[in-house]
Amino acid sequence: WIAPLSLALAAGAGAMLCYLYVSAVNRLNDGVSKGVLDLIGNTPLIRIASLSEETGCEILAKAEMLNPGGSVKDRVALQIVREALREGRLQPGSLITEGTAGSTGVSLAMVAAALGCRCSIIMPDDAAVEKANMIHAYGATVQRVRPVSIVHPDHPVNVARRIAASTPGALFADQFENEANYRAHLKTGEEIWRQTRGRVQAFVSGAGTGGTIAGVSVSLKARNPRVKVFLIDPPGSSLFNKVKRGVMYTYEEAEGKRLRNPFDTITEGIGINRLTANFGKAVIDDAFRGTDREAVEMAQFLLRNEGLWVGSSAAMNCVGAVKAARALGPGHVVVTLLCDGGHRHLSKFHNPEYLAQMGLTPLSKGRELGFVA
Ligand code: PMP
């Protein structure tokens, strides 16, 4: 009987050791992420006290600058790459290409580095140089091209598509037409719903590819059809007229104004003059126009009153949140997105000399926005 007993004791001791090992490992892993990609999404929702006080609404903003690549586009890059890997359209080690104002390029470069892929980004040379430097730092190649219209073969999107087509195994991420972009933001909407415990009454956003406003609008309206979705559109973009009048032309064109260039705004990443597959999915109730001056003043206001350092599209989104709050009246819960932080805008949107050159030096502490001085 001694042999079975010692066998049982040894097995018991072994099981105990196993248990101790697993629980020690679990304790060690508590709060430890498996890698940088695990940190994408689930961003905090910040109550913006000053804007809430100004409007009598509760203005909440999702802190997308806290994604590891520094912008909302991390969500999209990860979704595009994961779907392509799952469907066998991309293999580890292969090339990912994209044409982008920059943020998606930074995010794709990060995701590619984390997953062992190569990455080649084409961006217009008038976008902030910080983004090109970041893409380069992640080990991707970056080509800056003269800003041209989408029908031109040298448009970043067309260059990126061509490189992918001529490189075996390469993936053209195609954020404008690839609906993985919109699918990434179904989760953003789900997070907003959960974080507000279903109290959200309005969502406001600018649109570049349209992925954000599409995914979030579909996700929120599926949970509560009464949630209102508003577009905030910068100068030079045609989406305001698309929402208001069903036609695609810029309001400057409609008013007979001459533009310095087709995309006459300093807000990088939002505004577009073509209909994309992702924007086509959006369910939008109404639209507002925002000026560059309002965005600049909002950015300064948030810096001084909240210690919040946001990029140009995030500032424009907050302009939109204020316009939505005023349209709805006091007492509403209005949510928007802080797409990225100010760091990557130091050479332009947060550069006083550049703003002076553009005639956009802030004149007041919120007067442009109609705030009480
Ligand atoms: N803000 C920034 C900084 C961006 O790069 C983009 C995307 N181009 C947007 C906002 C707009 O988001 P979406 O493409 O989902 O419309």
UniProtKB/TrEMBL annotation:
Compartmental location: Mitochondrion outer membrane
Enzyme Commission number(s) of this protein: 2.5.1.47
One GO CC term on file: mitochondrial outer membrane
Enzyme class, first EC level, given as a word: transferase
Residue ranges constituting the Tryptophan synthase beta chain-like PALP domain according to the UniProt record: 37-340
Cofactors: pyridoxal 5'-phosphate
UniProt GO BP: cysteine biosynthetic process from serine
Superkingdom of the organism of origin: Eukaryota
InterPro entries attached to this UniProt entry: Cys_Synth/Cystath_Beta-Synth (IPR050214), P-phosphate_BS (IPR001216), TrpB-like_PALP (IPR001926), TrpB-like_PALP_sf (IPR036052)
Catalytic activity, reaction form: O-acetyl-L-serine + hydrogen sulfide = L-cysteine + acetate
Protein name: cysteine synthase
Species of the source: Volvox carteri f. nagariensis
